[in-house]
Amino acid sequence: MTALVLGPHLRHVSHRTATIWVETDRPCEVRVVNREQGVDAAARTFTAHGHHYAVVEIDGLAPGARIPYEVVADGETVWPEAGAGFPPSQIRTLREHGELRISFGSCRRSPGTVEEYGHDALTAFADRLRTGGEDAVWPDVLLMVGDQVYADELTPQMREFIGGRRAPGSPPDGEVADYEDYTQLYKLAWHDDPAVRWLLSTVPTFTIFDDHDIRDDWNTSYTWRRQMWAQPWWKARITGGIGSYWIYQHLGNMSPQDRASDAVFEAVRAASDETGDAGDVLDAFAEKADKHPETMRWSYSHDWAGTRLIVVDSRCSRLLTADRRGMLDDEEFDWLDGRCQGGMDHLLIASSLPYLLPMAIHHAESWNEAVAEGAWGRRGAAVGEKIRQAADLEHWAAFERSFRAVAAGVVSVGRGERGPAPASISFLSGDIHYSYLARITEPATQSKITQIVCSPLRNPLEGKFRWANRIAYSRAAGRPFRFLAKLAKVPAPPVRWRMTSGPWFDNAIATVELSGRDCGVRWETPGTSGTMSEMGRAGIT
């Protein structure tokens, strides 16, 4: 009998369509059914590196539908599993009008003990929805903004798996090495916790990667890229990481129309049909996407009920050459700038890395970029590069020209220069392992422009780092670092902002709540009890 290895995951939804992603243990036909409500959609699996996947697309649904479903593989029901103790998984389409709730977070270590990482915000969130009955407030979308898996900080379970595949000490020691390792990493993250598995089967989920999905400091600089490609093991690692991300995460971010026109999806399915395995095609695509990032767009954008969500790839699409440096390459920036338009009630820009950091960190990163690029001479540049890699100075502030370009576009939208100004423009981010809200105060705009950060889902900072970040969070701490930046001839930022809520260092998940022209956000945490409670709340408009 065919079995599910991973999934089902409810991925891209619209008002009338839904996507179900699964991994199975053998080639088969996968059907998603609810015969009472006329749902019956099917797809054949495709194969890559010996693993079998299906993406089932359902069309013709009603807006705001809540349709329980089953997954059938070659005629046998494989989901729901008997005795699981969870409510039926549902296809949940979006409403055409009314409220929209987007829950988000980042940085989740799994598996692991409570003593190591605290209670899992994603597990606790699932339990709240499962037990809340009719009174539970459900998100319309779950957005995971980076570090869904940790490829370079392995759990004992992952080390045991790797130990069964290669000799101790084989490079890269203590890290995943290839596609097969990544498949196990995703299985440990999304299969073994039944509450999370149920959550992903019934809440529409979108993702974007950050560095640990591939490797710490991924694409921090041109020097870093040269160092990595000089390693004999790196090719298998980067192709395995990008190829598995494409299958396990990116495929579900695309709409059915985008997948239908996607040349990579067509090539992978064709190779699977012709040769039985599309692994070589996937590897070639992944290597090209890394070496020539302009050939692949991982960013995406969806419009829902008066809200535009833009999810920006701030990792793989970086411009890193000996002569130029940008958070986004030229094609990616043009795409982002083109999507930043007025005419919506709310504009949400999700980037795994926060756009607006505490001032001390922002000025430290902009100073470091200038020094590493030669502002204090060749020796200073070498020291600056070492500091950049050691201290993870790689956010938007460390890409000064990119920061200024995005600021110009967002301020233009907020002033109504690209169509009617939205009520709110919000950056949604994670990465830094604490949560906060920052508000742009200058220049004046019609839109309220904010940075909302929620991190971690489950990977709290150690105490000494909490204290360091509390100090950096204060307004006074920014002054000496701004002085350093001025010495390196870094111009003043084109916008001014202040931190208004937080910082909170607990595991957490945030929900942006949108209704008409109103926008607010709340953060929830499992704290020390494992039961979700409100950690903070803020009105934005």
Automatic annotation (TrEMBL):
Coiled coil: none
InterPro entries per the UniProt record, alphabetical: DUF7800 (IPR056702), Metallo-depent_PP-like (IPR029052), PhoD-like_MPP (IPR018946), PhoD-like_sf (IPR038607)
Limits of the PhoD-like phosphatase metallophosphatase domain: 138-223
Residue ranges annotated for the DUF7800 domain, each copy included: 1-91
PANTHER family in the cross-refs: METALLOPHOSPHATASE BINDING DOMAIN PROTEIN, PHOD-LIKE PHOSPHATASE METALLOPHOSPHATASE DOMAIN-CONTAINING PROTEIN
Protein known as: Alkaline phosphatase family protein
Organism: Actinomadura citrea
